[in-house]
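Discussion board: Methods & Data

I've been asked by a reviewer to show the raw model output for two of the constructs in my manuscript, not just the figures. I'm not sure how much to include, so I'm pasting the format here to get opinions. Each protein appears as its amino acid sequence followed by a line of discrete structure tokens. Is this the kind of thing reviewers expect to see in a supplement, or should I convert it first? Here is construct A:
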Amino acid sequence: MQLFSLALGPEERNKLLLEHAGAIIYTILPDGTMTYVSANWPRELGHAEAVVVGRSFSSFVHPDDHPACYAFLERIVGTGEPEGGIEYRVIHADGREFWHTSSIIPVKQQDGGIIGYVGVAHDISRLKETQAELHCANTQLAALLASREEELRRVTNDALTAAESEAGRIGQDIHDSLCQDLIGLSRLAETATPSHDGATPPCREILSRIRERAAQLAGVARGFAHNLTLHELEVQTLPEALETLARRTNEMFQTETETNICEDLDFLTYEQNVHIYRIIREAIANAVKHAKASHIWIDLVHESHRLAVSVSNDGTALADEVHRHDGLGMHQMRMRASLLNGELVLRDNGRNQTVLELTIPLTLIKVPS
């Protein structure tokens, strides 16, 4: 190879390289006139060299790409510095279009004066085709994912709606049957007690216990009925319903539940109110049943760009296992948060308090119909 290279003179060697390089080499004037093209131009684009030389590059470039190409050339002429990366379409002699990318280098004399501009063009048509195919595939994938996400949201909403309806039915049944039966039993025991004045003290004591226990169980059943239904939300605003929930929690479990709830929530739909209310109520139930909390804090703040909801308690700190294995209640809270386009986080705040946080961007609040 070295002997072959030495056998050729500089001009022959340069000509050989130009004719067989993988790119098109050309020279161009500041006004865009082509003054030379290598042999690759006729081979790749079908125009004879004599047809190209002496004419503006714009004769062979797609009209839509003229502005970008002229601006590219003007920058190089203006700065006197090399530049590359311009992408444009060239037109084959038979009318086909190919994508090219070019780099242009100003050729300078020793005194810095520019005597010409040399360009190197590469065919990137296949790359463009690949990019177009990838863009199409990404568009189809995004549409499919959006469709699946919307389908999942719809199924999730339907499942929660069905569960809500069934829970409401059960709660109503408990209120209309079990509660009434227990109240009736309590009153029956109360009525029967005076008629057994001659009975032994143990008998009267048993009747009294039946009356008291029946009344207690009626209260518990009434609480279950309230928890299963959404009576408060049907007759109260969300802030009012949460205040009622806090008051009932204190009465039933002897807790201290404090609230900090903003009032300007009229923009929420009924479905959104339901999801937020259910999440808060489930968090309170977990605080009472699992954490054995004596103090609970409910915060619902309307900020400029989001709703910030938190339920904190002073009960037993979270164990790692709680984070690893979410129960049914936590799973449903996450489902509701997703329907609100919100983020749900359960954490320890570092002060021996467990905090459930729900953050909902106001621009994304949406519940599927």
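Construct B, same format:
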Amino acid sequence: MSKILPFRGIVYNQSTAGDVNDLVCPPYDIISPTEQKALYRKNPHNVVRLEFGLESPGDTDQDNRYTRAAALLEEWSRAGVLRRHSSPAFYLYEMEYAAGDRTKRLRGFLCMVRIEDYDSGMVLPHESTLSGPKADRLKLLRACRAGFSQIFSLFSDPDGAISRFLDKTSGQPEREAQDGDNVRHRIWTFDDEQDIQAISQAMADKPFFIADGHHRYDTALNYRNERRSAQGSFTGDEEYNYVAMFMARLEDPELTILPAHRILFNLEGFHPRQFEDDLNSYFNIERIDFTDTSESANRQTILDTMARRAERSHVFGMRVKGEQSYYLLTLRNDADMDALIPDKSAAYRMLDVSILHHLVIDKLLGIKMATHKLGLNIEYTKDADEAVNRIDEGTADVAFFMNPTKVDEVKTVAGSGERMPQKATYFYPKLLTGLVMNKID
């Protein structure tokens, strides 16, 4: 049974710390080294110093970015840069963003969620995780005993009952920030005890799907187990048994998943003509040649055609280094996937990312599935321009353009207990770090 709780949020005191726009940062895993340094310069109290601090050549076990984050957290709390709310609450979180020619507003709420083992069936991940990021996050959690960001999760609320409670909150937000993608992030404190109790009861039988933050959930699970082992006995109500989450409706039409395009590089023995022949065994191939002046329009034609065909076909776009052509690849026979990975569910086999990773990248290019998540030959981007630039500058061999994974596909595959290939989804927008934080006492 899922259990959620209100919590005493930690927020910036803007009269002391400065404007909230200068204090928050993106999720740690999408911050480049250049952006990390820029955030340091933006404000001496920017949350990046806590969430993703700079390393130093002289770091030791006693003095490193994790211990420095813990010291800063204590210092900022003592100096009034951060303040903790006096009573527990949920926090209504709204993101307003442009989606094509319209504006979307995704609403959910921040709460503490009891950490469940995966075999409980109450938490449903859909992507695999890497050991490196989990080790990093665990060191930070041990040092600070605090959370500076939230896991993005989804719950099913088909009739909108929980949303109706949240919609009671309106008016000016208590905090509002704008990120680099011009997404507006708004926070309201939601502290009506009766409504909190009603929401908590309504959520009690609902499993939740992890949309974004698989590494953080695994870290919270590992930290919980460490604390339980060290303590020897526990009630289950201790704060380390909970992790902060943003909870949004699975059925919300304002929810967006962007495509995560694939950039492949360092392909040994790669021969474009041979690769095209190999592809022709499984895909119908359409080619559009372009000139320097027509490239942008032809690329958009490829992306638009992919989107139109997404409901009835498994289709990919492709560019190959050294060629003035775009390709459309359409899977010819679904049975090829049945034969290739018969141990997987039908829903998994028919994911576009499964077809690309198992059939094209693994079978045809020879990059084994076990290595995909290591990033030795593959990078991921939501920006088609970035993929094209990598091809044009010669630092990538092949770029594959994807349609986005559908929300229903996430629900079906995760619900069957399977995990999709790496970076199968790019839920958008990303939550900002530092709007509301939590302490683990």
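Answer (T.O., handling editor elsewhere):
This is acceptable in a supplement if you add a one-line summary per construct. For B, something like: The mean pLDDT is 94.
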